[in-house]
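JOB MANIFEST
job_type = single_chain_structure
chain_count = 1
residues = 140
[input]
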Amino acid sequence: MEEDAAAFAARLKHRAHTYGFLTCLLLVASSIVGDAGGPLFSWLWPLMIIGGLITLFLAVYLRFDAALFRFIASHEDETEGCRAVDDILARMHLRKRPHVTRPLHMRMTRTNSLLTKLHLAFAAFLALFAALATYGLWTG
């Protein structure tokens, strides 16, 4: 069974908020654990910050997509909603207006690839946090 736009938007919103909150929490925790310092910390910390910022960027992007899917769901016809989203994105100068409106399932597929990128970025960020926390606890 294919997911409708409203349920998809709710799932995206939940994931974006969860990953964004956890990333912020781990960034704060890493600064507390990282007080031990040391040579490894001096190059792990910038990687940690960059990984956190990438994860937060992807979470915000996912939240924006969730809002677009919610907008599609607010229309009676999903094709009309997809056309309205294309119009909004063109007016915001984020995308050119396409000649052919992409159907909802194609939009969901592209957004699922964004969700996969968010999962990978968060996993890399989590690995850096684990390395930083282990190093901080080992030397501290």
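[summary]
The mean pLDDT is 89.
The first helix runs from residue 5 to 33.
exit_status = 0
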